[in-house]
Design goal:
By secondary structure, this protein is α/β, with parallel strands linked by helices. It contains eight helices and seven strands.
Length: 252
């Protein structure tokens, strides 16, 4: 019995820890060759490459807060993958605060960096991937968005919510406009995930879990499992969809 991702080559951004790391391990276990990505934590990314073994093609360092870094990351990953990437999982993201009472300089900086990492870098990666994938018969893009893209975010994270809402639209546009060329595009909209980006203090965890009907945050493995299923092409007609993974804390 063949593995669902056998023969596929995938770039997974933000894969030195958390959801990205879980996704890299699962993709490799399901037969894909994976390219990992890290930034300041490249030691963790390199360790992950060693842990995954032969199915890991290497790790690329890229600071996605820098304009142009998304395209550079994709090109470097494409080189490691010998000129063909079948799957991109855009997982890297930040959750910076931008409260109303920030200084003007801090407000503008935090909005700019949030939009750069969470939206523009993803757009740049997609811009690079679409013609390459189309020229090789197609591919799959999975963008990790957030329930905040639909319901909004708390008052201190407007930039984050705005970036994820735009990411949802980007995903739908790709699916609609390049589906005829074999490009499948999906978004995932998690709520809280039990990673280091989630609430850490006991009281904060209890507050987060109290709004989740199933009583717990999603695991990184659950996000990875959905990304792997979609990337496999097992349900290509779901292209353009956004899958909610939030324990029914937000339903639409």
């Amino acid at each position: 019995m063949s593995l669902p991702l056998a023969g596929k080559r995938a770039l997974i951004t933000g894969s030195s820890h958390g959801v990205g790391l879980a996704t890299a391990h699962l993709f490799a276990a399901q037969g894909a060759d994976v390219v990992l990505h890290g930034n300041a934590n490249m030691a963790d990314a390199d360790h992950a490459v060693q842990a995954i073994g032969p199915k890991a093609l290497g790790a690329v360092q890229a600071d996605l807060s820098r304009p142009g870094a998304g395209r550079e990351l994709y090109d470097a990953a494409l080189h490691l993958a010998s000129g063909r990437l079948d799957i991109v999982v855009n997982n890297a993201g930040i959750h910076w605060a931008s409260p109303l009472d920030s200084s003007d300089a801090e407000w503008e900086r935090n909005w700019a960096v949030t939009l750069q990492v969470n939206l523009m870098a993803v757009a740049d990666i997609c811009r690079a991937a679409i013609p390459e994938m189309a020229g090789n018969g197609g591919g799959a893009i999975v963008n990790i968005a957030s329930r905040a893209g639909y319901r909004g975010e708390d008052r201190n994270h407007m930039a984050y919510g705005a970036s994820k809402g735009a990411l949802l639209s980007l995903t739908k546009t790709i699916a609609r406009q390049w589906g005829s060329e074999g490009i499948l595009a999906y978004a995932l909209a998690p709520g809280w995930i039990d990673t280091r980006m989630g609430p850490q203090a006991d009281e904060d965890r209890r507050t987060a879990e109290a709004e989740i009907p199933i009583g717990r945050m999603a695991s990184a493995g659950e996000i990875a499992a959905m990304a792997a299923f979609l990337a496999s092409g097992a349900c290509a007609s779901a292209t353009g969809s956004c899958i909610d993974i939030n324990g029914a804390s937000y339903v639409r």
